[in-house]
Amino acid sequence: MTTTALTLTPTDGGAGCCGPAVTQAVDPEVARELARTFKALADPARVQLLAIVAAQDGSEACVCDLTEPVGLSQPTVSHHLKILVDAGLLTREQRGRWAYYSLVPGALARLAGALTDATSD
Amino acid sequence: MTTTALTLTPTDGGAGCCGPAVTQAVDPEVARELARTFKALADPARVQLLAIVAAQDGSEACVCDLTEPVGLSQPTVSHHLKILVDAGLLTREQRGRWAYYSLVPGALARLAGALTDATSD
Fold this sequence. Notes:
Chains A, B: InterPro entries: ArsR-like_HTH, ArsR_HTH, HTH_ArsR_DNA-bd_dom, HTH_MetalResp_TranReg, WH-like_DNA-bd_sf, WH_DNA-bd_sf. Chains A, B: GO terms for molecular function: DNA binding; DNA-binding transcription factor activity. Chains A, B: It holds the Pfam family HTH_5. Chains A, B: Residues 26-121 form the HTH arsR-type domain. The structure is a homodimer of 121-residue chains. Chain A has helices at residues 28-40, 44-55, 67-70, 74-86, 107-120, and strands spanning 8-10, 24-26, 60-62, 90-95, 98-103. Chain A is of the alpha+beta class. Chain A has a single domain, classed as Arc Repressor Mutant, subunit A (Orthogonal Bundle), CATH 1.10.10. In chain A, strand 4 (90-95) and strand 5 (98-103) form a beta hairpin. In chain A, helix 2 (44-55) crosses helix 4. Chain A is elongated, with a radius of gyration of 18 Å. The interface between A and B is large, with 61 and 61 residues.
């Protein structure tokens, strides 16, 4: 996730039919980036996995400890974790037999900030 | 969106193979609710529409003013707006010919809070 804030930029305004013209829109590139991140969170198992990792000491967890809490097989859990890594929310580190997943510092806070920025203008 | 915070509840812990046992997980019902809301935001057009509505005076916009900024037909825009309404992020009010959409007060802030709660434990 390289861009993390809803950057509001002026549009042409348009010919409003029934009120003040719409004068602001989100940059399309930012909208795509945010939608991609939200898509990674659009699954209950991934919400759970992210919250579990975030709740651990050092915001890090072994994949071997993540299967039981979500009640899914390790291949399925690894698939969900890969989506969270690809979205820039987690990082993955292989240590011997097991993969460890860590929360990307600030990633959730930046996403939260993008949501609240949308309501502050 | 009736439940808006990531409520962390104890799990059985499990037999961790290689570190401290995982002791926290998100309530499955909360995870489903959050995932449903994130899914509503998992589309660039819906991110744009939500931000445009949020940026208007009174956080309200006529559907007639929303088609041009996103470059989509009115039926397509209405479809996207319905998904945002169903997710509890917008409300819809018909006034004569046009439908007006308003941001649900606090909805985005609560969603943002759920994200940051996940990292505060």
